[in-house]
């Protein structure tokens, strides 16, 4: 270790990316200190996946990430794959299972993932300071950085910012990493809540609020993006995996279009029902295809309700078209309070995709959610944390 430095590497943030970076660097013989302002590390890991941690996705690749610089994530994701993290999980004898769409969860508890990361850090000689708030970061006179904290001043030639984004402030999220990036000359791209429920207001909210708790499979589209999964009506709007996914692509004022019978031909269904049950009303027919309360609501506000035999071919086509592309206008999102991720952040054009070192300030690194890289719902953001943390840990 160079004289005048307390450590080789300082890591700000004891979340997924920070702990992975620390363990990787420590295993290479580096003296590493993780500085975490909360009273324990890995708080978002602990709450994720309903307490079982959706720790990766077997299909994770560059196409599953949003960024203004979409090629940035390729190198790190190729060098540390879901298979690599699965091997680590298996080496710690953590039982896991695959849910739909390649999502991997712990059989038991997300605490096992935190315990695994802490064990890796301990084996690598990493020191962790919790409850350690940072007052300021300055440049060391001999190069490198000094972190002035509640536990004193620490200095190192390498400083890794793994402080996350703005999502779920109750877990301790803050804009600290963005302020630090700005301090050292970095461009920040606008941030907003991602993987978040959408809210309704005015007439749509009045029409749908009392359906809270009703869920159904949909294919939801906004612009060029579309996802097929479950949607859930809430007291304030809509949620569920399909909505959380599309929320990262949705822009205010942009209508959503929902296929309410995904994978089925709505016109064929209606024509078959007209032939088989000519006296049945449309709301009754739809009540067998959709949640009954929602079907009734559709026939109160969006579709005419009358016996099937009274629909002529053009009217049947109109009804089918609405079922294929039901329009829904969201007014906003639930915001960072419930958002799983933060879109935007540190502009990756000013960061090396190989090492994650700043192109503005030598020895300064950014990993994880603080960067303008955001994954889909379903384990992709954890895989980005592991991959980016590992890449920086190999370089510091």
Automatic annotation (TrEMBL):
Lineage per the UniProt record: Bacteria, Pseudomonadati, Pseudomonadota, Gammaproteobacteria, Lysobacterales
InterPro entries given in the database record: BaiN-like, BaiN-like_dom_sf, FAD/NAD-bd_sf, RsdA/BaiN/AoA(So)-like_dom, RsdA/BaiN/AoA(So)_Rossmann
Keyword Acyltransferase: no
RsdA/BaiN/AoA(So)-like Rossmann fold-like domain location: 7-394
All residue ranges annotated as the RsdA/BaiN/AoA(So)-like insert domain in the record: 192-341
Source species, domain of life: Bacteria
Keywords annotated in UniProt: FAD, Flavoprotein
Keyword Flavoprotein found: yes
Official protein name in the record: NAD(P)/FAD-dependent oxidoreductase
Pfam families found in the cross-reference section: HI0933_like, HI0933_like_1st
Record PANTHER family: OS12G0638800 PROTEIN
């Amino acid at each position: 270790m160079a004289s005048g430095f307390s450590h080789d590497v300082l890591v700000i943030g004891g979340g997924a990316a920070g702990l992975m970076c620390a363990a990787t660097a420590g295993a290479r013989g580096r003296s590493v200190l993780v500085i975490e302002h909360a009273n324990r590390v890995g708080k978002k890991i602990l709450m994720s996946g309903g307490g079982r941690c959706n720790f990766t996705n077997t299909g994770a690749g560059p196409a599953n990430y949003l960024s203004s610089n979409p090629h940035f994530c390729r190198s790190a994701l190729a060098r540390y794959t879901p298979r690599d993290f699965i091997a680590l999980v298996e080496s710690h004898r953590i039982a896991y299972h695959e849910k739909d769409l390649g999502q991997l969860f712990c059989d038991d508890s997300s605490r096992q993932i935190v315990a695994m990361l802490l064990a890796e850090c301990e084996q690598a000689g990493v020191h962790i300071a919790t409850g350690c708030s940072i007052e300021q970061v300055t440049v060391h006179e001999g190069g490198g950085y000094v972190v002035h904290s509640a536990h004193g001043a620490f200095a190192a030639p390498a400083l890794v910012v793994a402080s996350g984004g703005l999502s779920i402030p109750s877990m301790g999220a803050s804009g600290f990493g963005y302020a630090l990036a700005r301090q050292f000359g970095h461009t920040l791209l606008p941030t907003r809540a991602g993987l978040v429920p959408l809210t309704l207001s005015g007439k749509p909210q009045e029409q749908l609020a009392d359906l809270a708790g009703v869920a159904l499979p949909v294919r939801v589209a906004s612009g060029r993006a579309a996802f097929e999964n479950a949607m859930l009506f809430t007291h304030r709007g809509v949620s569920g995996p399909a909505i959380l996914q599309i929320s990262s692509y949705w822009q205010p004022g942009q209508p959503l279009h929902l296929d309410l019978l995904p994978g089925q031909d709505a016109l064929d269904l209606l024509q078959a029902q007209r032939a088989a049950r000519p006296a049945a009303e449309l709301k009754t027919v739809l009540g067998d295809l959709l949640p009954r309360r929602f079907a009734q609501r559709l026939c109160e506000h969006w579709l005419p309700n009358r016996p099937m035999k009274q629909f002529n071919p053009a009217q049947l086509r109109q009804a089918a078209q609405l079922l294929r592309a039901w329009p829904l206008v969201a007014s906003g999102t639930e915001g960072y309070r419930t958002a799983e991720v933060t879109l935007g952040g540190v502009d990756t054009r000013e960061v090396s995709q190989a090492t994650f070192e700043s192109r503005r300030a030598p020895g300064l690194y950014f990993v994880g959610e603080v960067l303008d890289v955001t994954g889909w719902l379903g384990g992709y953001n954890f895989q980005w944390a592991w991959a980016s943390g590992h890449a920086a840990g190999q370089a510091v």
